[in-house]
Amino acid sequence: MDDDSQSVESSSDHPVAAYNAGAVGWLYRGISLVGIAMAVGGVLTEVYLEGEARNGLWPATELFGALMAGEPSAWTTLGIWILLAGPALALISMLISGVRRRSWPAVILAALVLLVIICAIPIMTWIRGGGL
Amino acid sequence: MSVLVLAAIALTGFFAAGLGTMVGMGGGTFVVPILVVALGIDIRAAIAAGAICVVLTSLKGSCAYLEEGMVNMKLAMVLEVTTIVAAVAGAMVVIFAPVEALKIIFGLVLAMTAVAMYINPKGRGSVKSGPDPYGLEASYDRPTKPGHRVYVPQRVRRGVGLNSLAGLTAGMMGIGGGAVQVPIMNKLMRVPMRAAVATSTFMVGMTALVSALVYTGAGLVDVAITVPAMAGIVLGSQMGSHIGTKASASILKVVLIGVLVVLAVMMVADGMGWWSVPR
C-alpha cells in the first residue's frame, strides 16, 4: 500500500456518490456485531446446558417456534442468518440510495447483483429437493 | 460436537486468520485447508464454514473502508455481476464434484497462490485522468497527506471477465477470492492498492453470500464448525493485524509461502489417496 506518492490534489467531492457508502458502513458494523454475538452466544449457551453443540441450522419453518421455546441453537441459526442478510441489506440500501439520486446505471447494477442473490434461493430450494 | 473439538476449531480459525491478516490475505485461504488437513473435517463442511466466515470478515473489514469512502462501490457492482454468477457455479461444483477432486483443486490453487506471491509482478501505478466510458472514476482521502487521490480504472471489460475467475475460485473453495481480485484490480485495472483492497473486501461478502446460500440448501453448513471458526477468526485477525505491523515483511512472506506449499502438498496427497488425515 505504498502508492500514495502518485496522488493528485483535488478539492472535488468523491465522484462515485451514487451509493450511500457511509450508511452501508454503519449497517455492516451493526449487523456483524449482532450476528456474531447471537451465533457465539447461542453455541456457548448450548454447550453449557447440554455439553455439546447441535450441528445443523434450524429450518426456516421451525425457527420461530424454536426461538419462542428458548432453544439456544435457534439463536445461533438466527445469528448466522442475520450475518448472511448483511450484504443483501447493503444492496437494498444502495438501490434506495441510487433511486433517490436518480442514478439509474447504479440502480441497474445493484438490482442485477441482488437478482442473482435472489436467484440463489430457488437454487437452494432445488438442491434441497423442493423443486424449482 | 464436543467442547474439545469446538476449541480446536476455534484455535484453527484463530491461527489461520492471524497468519492471513499478517500478510493482508484474510483468514479464509488458510482456514479451510487447515480444518481439512489438521482436524480431518469434511472438505464440503469446511468450505461452507469458510464461506460464512468470509461474509463475517467482509462485514467487519468493510465498515471502516466504507465510512472513509475508500470503496469504489460502482466498480464493485460492475465487477460483482459476473463474479457472483461464477460463485454460484463454483458452489454447485462443490456440491456435485467428488471430494477427492475438490481436495486436488484446492491444493493446486494454494500452490498457484504461493507461486504468485513469490513472483509478485509490479503494477504500473494508477491513471489519474482520461477516458472513462463506464463512469468509474473515483477518489479517496489520502490517509497520510491532505487532498484526494483520484483514479480512473482501466481495462474494465477484461477486469470483469477475469473477476469471474475470482468468483469461481471463491465459490469452489469457500474463500473470499480477494487473493485473485486485488491483483486484477491493482495490476490490470490500475486501481490504487488501498482502493483495490477496500473494494475487494466489500465485494467478497456478496460473493460468499451466494455460495453460502447454495451450501445451506445442500445442508453443508455445520454450525458446530462454522461458529467456533468465526469466533477464532475475529480474534485471530485482531492479533494478526497487531503482529503484522511489527514483523519483517520478507520473513512473513517466506513463512506464508512455506505454509501454502505444505498445505497444497497435503491437500493434493489427501485427494490422490497417498496420505490420509486421521479422523
Explain this structure.
The complex is a heterodimer of chains A (132) and B (279). With 132 residues, chain A is mainly α. Chain A has helices at residues 21-50, 60-68, 72-100, 104-128. The radius of gyration of chain A is 20 Å and the shape is elongated. Chain B is mainly alpha-helical and 279 residues long. Chain B has one domain. Chain B has helices at 3-22, 28-39, 43-67, 73-96, 99-119, 156-173, 178-188, 193-217, 223-244, 249-272; strands at 138-141, 148-151. In chain B, β1 and β2 form a beta hairpin. The longest helix of chain B is centred in the N-terminal third of the chain and has 25 residues, at 43-67. The two termini of chain B are 14 Å apart. Chains A and B meet through α1, α3 and α4 of A and α3, α4, β1, β2 and α8 of B.
Please write out the topology.
The complex is a heterodimer of chains A (132) and B (279).
Chain A: H1 21-50, H2 60-68, H3 72-100, H4 104-128
Chain B: H1 3-22, H2 28-39, H3 43-67, H4 73-96, H5 99-119, E1 138-141, E2 148-151, H6 156-173, H7 178-188, H8 193-217, H9 223-244, H10 249-272
Antiparallel strand pairs in B: 1-2
Uncertain stretches of chain B: none
Percent in helix of chain B: over 70%
Give the DSSP E fraction of chain B (strand runs of 2 or more residues): under 5%
> Distance N terminus to C terminus of chain A?
46 Å
* Sequence stretches where pLDDT stays below 50 over 5 or more residues of chain A: 1-16
**With helices defined by DSSP (H or I, 4 residues minimum), what is the helix count of chain A?**
4
Summarize the structure.
Chain A is mainly α.
List the main descriptive attributes of the protein structure presented here:
heterodimer, A: 132 residues, mainly alpha, B: 279 residues, two-stranded antiparallel ribbon, 10 helices, 2 strands
